[in-house]
């Protein structure tokens, strides 16, 4: 009996209408499942493609651990776990930049390209955090700066150096690069929308306020798992002795 009451106080109740809590929970399971999928598939690929798929798995695994913290934080405090959210992004978004570098390496991508993308993503995230958690009355200013860094990333991969390398690589790599570019242009654009729903600025009178967490959770599932699957599909195409088809 005593054991029972301890358990009840540790595992919080979930209100059936707590949709935010639901997306945190499903997010945790989806990220965990995706990680197992990527890790367990590793041995099937040619050696030089394993690192890329491994990084896909690391991205979803790091997210899974953060989602376990975030879902508990949410159910205990009923407020956005902004700190854990950004720690997750600080680790996973640079890893997505590494993915661009890894697939373009065959065309001669240099680590300077990778560090440039990582640097831009860190600027995007630091300024986003300042606007969302620290200087909340200046959210539009910090969000604007963050948006500029985001657009430079979009430029680099769509039209800049990364694009040229993808064209030089051609074939399946060019195709995969294009899809990843769409993820960054459309999938990543969901995040500033969530930010605008959760902060006050010129946009508030137009779009109102809403659940930033539902928007971020959906975006994370699309971007982290979808992005990883594009890499997975590319690795399959590039593997000669296919064990899988
Ligand atoms: C797995 C997590 C990912 C791919 C997170 C991506 C996050 C962004 C692209 C965030 C962008 C933001 C802006 C462009 C402006 C407002 C502040 C941010 C940080 C939400």
TrEMBL record:
Chain ranges passing through the membrane: 20-40, 52-69, 89-107, 114-135, 141-158, 179-198, 214-235
Pfam families in alphabetical order: Bac_rhodopsin (PF01036)
Compartments where located: Membrane
Keyword Membrane set for record: yes
Keyword tags: Chromophore, Membrane, Photoreceptor protein, Receptor, Retinal protein, Sensory transduction, Transmembrane, Transmembrane helix
Family stated for the protein in its record: Belongs to the archaeal/bacterial/fungal opsin family.
Name of the featured protein: Bacteriorhodopsin-like
